[in-house]
Write the structure tokens for this entry.
Amino acid sequence: MTNNVHVLKWIDEMKALTTPDEVVWIDGSEEQLEILRQQAMATGEIIKLNQDKLPGCYLHRTAINDVARVEGRTFICTKKKEDVGPTNNWMNSDECYEKLSKLYKGSMKGRTMYIIPYSMGVVGSPFAKIGIELTDSIYVVLNMVIMTRVGKTVIDALGDDAGFIKGLHAKADLDDNNRYICHFPEDNTIWSINSGYGGNVLLGKKCFALRIASWLGRKEGWMAEHMLILGIENPQGEIKYISAAFPSACGKTNLAMLIPPEVFKAKGYKVWCVGDDIAWLRIGEDGRLWAVNPEAGFFGVAPGTSEKTNFNALASTRKNTIFTNVVHNLDDNTVWWEGLDKNPPKNALNWKGEKWDASLGEKGAHPNSRFTAPAIQCPCVSSEFNSLKGVPISAIVFGGRRAKTAPLVYQARSWQHGVFIGSIMASETTAAATGAVGVVRRDPMAMLPFCGYDMAQYFAHWLEMGKKIPNPPMIFNVNWFRTDNDGKFLWPGFGDNMRVLMWILDRCEGKADARETAIGYVPSAKDINCEGLDVSTEVLDEILSVDNALWREDIKGIKEFYAKFGDTMPKELLDELATLEANTAE
Ligand code: OXD
Ligand code: MN
């Protein structure tokens, strides 16, 4: 497939370490994929679903001890500990190579090593970067083909170059005590062992497109962010783009594909999805910030996805999709998950493959069960999805789940203030990562688990980028999750979030009003277009209110979080914190 000496030498070394019986290059052809599917079906690794109802769809079950990303076993490995900062797990790179080599040794004996050349970003785009993943899992191959651009064109684009990310994945024994997801940004290398769960093993996604790419972005003057990208088209046919960062499972996929409320649809407004999870951002020749989604598919959380909550995501999964850890409906050989509809199948297996009876109250699908679907199948996929130059970003939106503190939306006073707002993001933990659910944690820019270097340096990089972008996007924060005193959500969310996005875009064009508060610019109830919406002005006033006492409380948490970074924290952010403190003082 290639004569690239850098590629061949590395593969030889990894072969010598893992000693597979066979080696197969993945060329991306349908013929080859079909052979692999047949093999995976024969071993039970995947199950072919009803091809009339779900053509090209398969079901996979992971091991029951292997259902989510493992942040505690995810490491950034460098020569110097200070390079990764206080929020990442660190291992010395030499020590890590030595330790993991023992685990990889002979781990592919009796197995096949698949070589997957893939591109993050459209091949030929100035944004695109190439990786090669070596894996002993057909499931990984089939997912990577959906999630990235795979095959011969990628290896041809690499030519003789040494500039590719070297990924090694071995299932080994799926031993969770020896599970490691290790990144070596100084060597462009990722090593993942003893897992078969997507976020740990589809190395193009979190490992490359966020952890390694964030490191490269700082070095090369661009940004790799945990952000969706969407476009809003107005009745005149103009499209403005927004990128938005929310912690895992805060509805990024839903927002990325939202369906406008009827009143806006009738006027001709449309929403286009460019990406639901990752954005790579660069300064364009025109001085604006431009974004691409480096992925080619959606690795979405299944539970809660329905025709009502996310019609477009569901529609994306009706063909050529891999479902992981959902319920298997044995009556018609289809899939089901909690929240899909109100009719759980009677004759079914749960995510573990056990006979399952919904009436007994136990969940059938794992809360972190997933669909892997090609993005081009999304009914609202943007016409710019495969654009080489990406899309210009008008607004950056941060957000999280806060029951009370943050209002529905507010705007930063400046780029620097916006970076501060991103740095204090907080949310409740969810099932996408292992560990406790429902605990509030700081998750700056939604990058806490994904930043490949010291986050204080990362904030400094954001501040630096702000100085370099001649026409920077405006920065906002949203919170769809304000609740009343009984814990009931006050804002309808979903498609109605478009009303907030419209205020945001109008602000970018100087067309909407706002009032200045202690935390930034907040709209009044009248500034949000509520045509056809059944939310009272009192409720709107409530969710647009800023309670300085709550912020004073929050400042304690912010200070605690900032203290982790000691004096490496950029002074600009400490200044912003001091301003917030002064603005909210009694
Ligand atoms: C994901 C995440 O996208 O956990 O899977 O953020
Ligand atoms: Mn994500």
In short: The mean pLDDT is 96. The CA atoms of residues 403 and 485 lie 9 Å apart. The first helix runs from residue 5 to 18. The pocket of manganese (II) ion (ligand 2) is lined by residues 226, 248, 277 (CB under 6 Å).
